[in-house]
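Before going further, it is useful to explain how the protein records used in this thesis are read. An example of such a record is reproduced below.

***
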Amino acid sequence: MFRHDCCEVRPEARVHNADLLAVYKLYCKKNGLEEFSKQKLYDMLSGIPGVHMKRVRIDGNSLQGHVGITLNEQAKMEFWNTESKSS
């Protein structure tokens, strides 16, 4: 499951939605899974206790994102640093 394989839930964590969605799409493709809609994914993640959607500033960029969750290092190495950065 995407949340367990690719995410960390921590109170201080945060992630931009664009980054989260890019990794989610690559994860689904790699694992032969049908993608949920963007809104359904965000709603499911926001249903995790301590996780909610709001505007977040990361590396000087203030964009819509989630607080209380982030991509784990494995997901960043496997998905973000390869395919999603080149698209």
About this structure: The domain at 2-86 is CATH 1.10.10.10 (Arc Repressor Mutant, subunit A).
